[in-house]
Amino acid sequence: MQKIAIDLYTNLSVNISKKMVTAYCVKDKKVVEIKNPVEVTLKNGRPAVKGTCPHCGGTVFRIGKLKK
Ligand SMILES: [Zn+2]
User: Fold this and answer.
1) Is the pLDDT of residue 15 over 60?
2) Measuring CA to CA, which of 12, 18, 32, 62 is 20 to 30 A from 53?
């Protein structure tokens, strides 16, 4: 029973990672996958996604909602 739960959790994690959000990293000068993306709302009420660059560890940012 517990093993099934772990397998389900693993599959879920894989599905999430396949839908990773990308953003342009100004330090790497290329589009990267956002690590630990968090949905935030800008001052003007627009949705945005903030996270960490997997290459340089800097903060990356994009306008738009986190795709689920
Ligand atoms: Zn970077």
Assistant:
1) no
2) 12
Question: Of 40, 22, 20, which Cα lies nearest the Cα of 31?
Answer: 22
Cα–ligand 1 centroid distance for 18 (angstroms): 19
Q: From the CA of 32, how far away is ligand 1's center (Å)?
A: 7
The pLDDT, as a whole number, for residue 66 is: 84
For the chain, domains (ranges, CATH) are 21-68 (2.20.25)
Give the pLDDT score at 65: 87
